[in-house]
Amino acid sequence: MTYQPPGIEHDHEIDLDGALDFINTLDLDDGQLIEHLQEPADAAAWLLEHRLLHAHDARRWTRADLDHTRAVRGALRDVVDSVVLDRAPTSESLRLVNETLEMGPRTELDLDGGAVRIGHRHVASPASEALVPIANAIVAELASGRPDRFRICANDQCAWTFFDASPTGRRRWCDMKTCGNRAKAARHRARVRASEAPAAPSV
Q: What is the DSSP code string of 75-90?
């Protein structure tokens, strides 16, 4: 009897930055809420682009799949925000994240001719299963990484969530070239206005 290791054709993984990018598909642009997953095809395309979904499954997405994807995204955002803001996430967010973690394929043994092969059995829809690696990436960082490095952009017109991998751990902006520079420009304008303000009359 021979042993055949598992293949990689069904391995779907995403890193922490990619998982946070998923959360940020609902974001702020100059204070206006922007939904990037407006239609089922939008969500399927995002997951397909990040290799979390097969092309033939992406074509089957429904409005219910989209609603579920948005709900899980909101739950993951609530969990990350709770770490950053030192508060408890809602019980519904915890339920949704835990439910998502259980939707991954189950490892099982089967036979391929005379060889024992490690295969897998799907227990959820492709739409639900595609979200598992995203939840895994977030939870893995919470469990054994540096959850204290989760951040929310200090620009209140942005509020992107990101992971601070800087050596000092003092990063405040999602991107220094955009939000960081905007903050610097705003501080500069405030200083200019203050220096140009007329002096108070002496008594």
A: HHHHHHHHHHHT-PPP
Three-class secondary structure of residue 151 per DSSP = strand
Return the closest-CA partner of residue 75 out of 139, 152, 151, 119.
139
83-137: pLDDT as tens digits: 999 999 999 999 999 999 998 776 767 777 777 777 656 666 888 899 999 999 9
What CA–CA distance (Å, rounded) separates 181 from 59? 41
Protein fold of 2-196: Jann2411-like fold (1.10.3300)
Cα gap 77→99, rounded to integer Å: 15
Those residues whose C-beta lies under 8 Å from the C-beta of residue 12, and which sit 6 or more positions away, are: 51, 52, 53, 130, 132, 133
Closest by Cα among 154, 162, 164, 163 to 186: 154
